[in-house]
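Re: the pair you flagged

First of the two:
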Amino acid sequence: MTTLEDIIRIAVNAHDGMKDMVGNPAVAHVLAVGLMGKTVAEQKAGFLHDVVEDSDITIDDLRAEGVEEDVLTAVDLLTHRPGMTYEDYVRNIVLSGNQTAIQVKLNDLHHNLHREYRPEAGNQGHNWHGQTSMT
């Protein structure tokens, strides 16, 4: 069984040196999503939700680290794989009925909608998802 500290360590190491589209440390997003979780499973899946998608770490690697199967199931559902449309990705999460994955995806979307760009990071004129702003 993993602790929250174990999971956070995995997430931090997986996102080491990565920046998001607005120049913020990528780990800040996964930490924010994890902290939004209301259950331990939601917190763990939130911290890990981008790990498989954004790094070389696999579900099997996480399993070898002792991550619980219910968390792995949610992380697997939350991983947007190459070749899968975004619509199919979201449909998979919803149709799974997996409440952990559904809540983490809602937390992820909520955080994405409220991210701000940082002009000091050299991303002036772009919003969080890289589109040019009108200002």
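Second of the two:
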Amino acid sequence: MRKLFALCMLLALLAPGCKAKPRSGAQLATTYQVGIFANPENAQSLKDSLVSMGYEASVEDFTEKGVAYKRVLVSHAGPLEFIYQVGAFKSEDNAKKLADTLAAQGYYANVRKVAINDATYYRVYVHNKDSQEAFSIKMRSMGLGEPVFRSLKTY
């Protein structure tokens, strides 16, 4: 029990917002916050999407500074890889330059072409296996703003 408590404390320090709880056998499930929304319909939509992909997801009330939000949580008993959008460009060259910059820093980044309202954009996605908070801080320090969660996968 002490080891579980110590692990929970370590997770709390490394990834605020994450909780650990025991699962069957010796496995340990971790709960990740993958989104937070002012609009409850957006939270429910993300949760439904994750459930359709086979993940154990839930929506939870969260209040900060008197403002009510809905946060989406995913529980999983193994490692996860989070995929974030960190940029969108009209120029494919600019998107590729950002992806190359991120790759040089050790991230797996790729570019995807999307059409929105008759316009073409090139989105830059980064795969992250590390602390979500540290990743967000790193992206903001590079001037990219807050990464947008797009998907996750097990590995």
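Confidence is low (pLDDT under 50) at residues 1-27.

-B.
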